[in-house]
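agent> Task received from the user: take the single chain below, predict its 3D structure, and emit structure tokens. No templates, no multimer pairing.
agent> Plan: (1) validate residues, (2) run structure prediction, (3) serialize to tokens, (4) report one or two observations.
agent> Step 1 OK, no nonstandard residues flagged.
tool_call: predict_structure(input=
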Amino acid sequence: EHLILAIDNMHDKTFLNGVFVYGTLRQGESRSSIMDEASEGLMEPASVRGTLYDHGAYPGLRAEGERNVVGEFYRCKDITDTLKRLDEIEGFSSYDDHEGLYHRAVLKVKTKEGERWAWTYITNLSTSGENIIESGDWKNR
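)
tool_result: status=success, residues=141
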């Protein structure tokens, strides 16, 4: 909680310019062009600890549980602009708003190059054991 508050109140977020995506923003998915435009280089396959849920047309991540959630890590050219755009897509307006689809958080991401910190979106929608994606991979549900 303290990390979220510190990051939310920082004026210069450029030191943390990575984003972890796990659903429709991944390569080959319906919104992949957004990350292609935002990225300053190549995508890195990545994963985080958590549980992935199927919300129908898109997934939702909870940063709890011992599963691996599969996704992609991107370094972004302009993280402020990228987060603004992703916030609109993901329905995030502030940490005080618990009504949005998602809230933004920083998680430790595993890549072949090692562990990194990255922005990602955590679902605010209702979840249950019935809609868990057992593979942890939106593309392999």
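agent> Step 4: summary for the user.
Residues 42 and 74 are 7 Å apart (CA to CA).
agent> Done.
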